[in-house]
Amino acid sequence: MARNLLARLRETMARATAPLAELVPLVAAELVTEVCSVYALRPGDILELVATVGLRPEAVGRTRLRVGEGIVGVCAATGQVLNLPDVQNHPAFVYRPETGEELFVSMLAVPIRRAGRVVGVVTVQNRLPRTYTADEVEALETVAMVLAELLSSLGVAESAEQGVGRSLPRRFAAVPLSRGIVIGPVVLQGMPKPPRKLLAADPNAEHARLAEAMQVVRAGLDELIAARVSHHATPSGTREILEAYRLIASDAGWLRRATSAIASGLTAEAAVYRVIEETRETMRRVQDPYLSERIADLEDLAFRVQAALEKEDARSAVPGAILIARRLGAAELLEWHARGIGGLVLEEGSAGSHAAIIARGLGLPLASGARGLLDAAEEGEEAILDAEEGALILRPEAEVVQAYRRMLADRQTRAASWNALRHCPALSRDGTPIRLLLNVGMPQELDQLDATGAEGIGLFRTEIAMLAQGRILDVGEQTALYRRVIETAANRPVVFRTLDLGGDKLLPESPKPKQENPAMGWRSLRVGLDRPAFLRRQLRALLTAAAERPLSVMFPMVATLEEFRIARGLLLAEYDRVQPRPARLSIGSMLEVPALLWQFDHLLKEADFISIGTNDLLQFLFAADRHTPELFTRYDFLSPGILDLFDSLRAKADAAGRELSVCGEVAARPLEALVLAALGFTTLSVPASSVLPLKALFAAVDLGAFRQVLATIRAAAAGEASLREPIANWAREQGLPI
Ligand code: PEP
Ligand code: MG
Fold first, then answer.
1. What is the pLDDT of residue 236?
2. What CA–CA distances, in Å, run from 51 to 60, 99, 224?
3. Pocket, ligand 1, Cβ cutoff 6 A
4. CATH superfamily, region 2-163
5. pTM to 2 decimal places
């Protein structure tokens, strides 16, 4: 039946001048019902009768129901099919006299859904009590799909495009991880799109197209799995996930449903879309994390099948778009960056995640923790990403967009004035020089040295390039990379930090138990010390790359003096073996594990320089995971205890005549940077995007005066958890650009 119906719908739509009016009698005749009506969603969540056969024609355009009101309203509100043999006695029934509806006893109401949102309702009614058969329900569901496209193409329901409750702006709170503001259309990572063509003339041809597309997708997955397996650096779990995809790709259940949808007259892409929509609807009602993961897998798969069907390059450019994704790997982020996105929002992700580090490096605004956003957003909708206040505004009002545009224009003017600072040294208003260095990790970021006028690279995170490639680079590749860094930096200093990889990302070929606390697990230098050959390869690459030029190497996650000594010994052993040797070799340590604080005096004697990694140091001092958004604002660097600690470290380093810098994220924030400078930390290593704003800030501040203010604030402190407010008040009074 459905196939016949679809064939006739196709003919009608091809020639009709008023397709909606012509479509309803066709459906009524096919399903043997006395009534067929279509309701479209209007602004303010109102459903309006836009076509009917069987109800009084004058009701068209007049009968309106709120979402949730009456059977039609309930169908729209819940998104569920209502199959009612005795509608008049249903508690939700409301009687509208203009329709003449009192004659009809049974009713079938099916939501019209587009891209997962209800945009209207189609109903059939009969005089006699009856329950509609499963075949009839399916036929009306297919009609609803056709109607979704028809309403959209006719512009009958422009507001309905947004779906129930979706025409309104929506604000999602998110944690800002890489600062910036973007206004643009959203793109959704790997979400299937509504098909362009719904109805097909020749089901056999569609079956063949689906089979061919599935072949392409399966081959693609096989290739991906093979490539991953041959790279030893695959994060554990990836392979299992890909295997699960492969299983889903051959799963008979959804294929069978797609095949039967094609048999009923849909195109292959419409059939795939329909199956995914149905599954999404079923799964949505179940609040189960496992199932929601499965639906994400299915969506991704459907997206791939659609791309294969449309033989479309899924990687086309999306300039200035805001990417919305559940989570994102380093390589994927680089891919999206190449496609031109202007910023991104993740449902899951943290300040220390690699996506965040890379986004900061690329200057891409990023916010995370916007749960539910992927479900709420539709491809192409306008949005504002405010990765400063921490918000994503979906479908913003025109006034809000204008206000943001004005703010961006002001910023551009300000940035132009910052640009003038590019060639100026960083200097406070009262003449204290500040050394601003860069935190980088990818070759693409090296041009930031010239762009910002930074004095050098204070932290080159060597693991980033490897994470971006998804594998450990061999000695030759590493040497080439480090050489490129040293040469681009020319005579500016570079501090290379040895690999700081999490345990599970390093050597997947050596099976080990899953770590309960990877941040405190087998990671970073610990791996290097347990696999000295591995660390030595990296040290050799660094020494070779430096050749006769000076070389600075820093070890991360040093927890004991002994660890530093062993690591240093490995470096010196390699140094003895290479020829030529660097003109000067400086060996430094990060201070990011609290235990090392109590060996700081010794460390000052043995390390050539020390850099404080506040990201890790603070997470361990406060026992507050740096990846947990709920904890981001709970503890403050600007607290009396932490400032006392930093003060004493500074005093000891000065007494020992050792360089002590800060390379964690706090150094990049205006107030924190001011406080650090006032405490005497005048070497700060920060992401590129912070260099010019910090130069502007320092140029405006009388650091001597602030030092006294800070001393007074600290002296007056009486057990507060944060001194941020009085410090910020002073900065505001001074008109500082914070
Ligand atoms: C830190 O911990 O502060 C740091 C700079 O290192 P990473 O963020 O790479 O752990
Ligand atoms: Mg660290």
1. 43
2. 6, 12, 50
3. 352, 459, 461, 500, 592, 613-616, 663-664
4. GAF domain (3.30.450.40)
5. 0.66
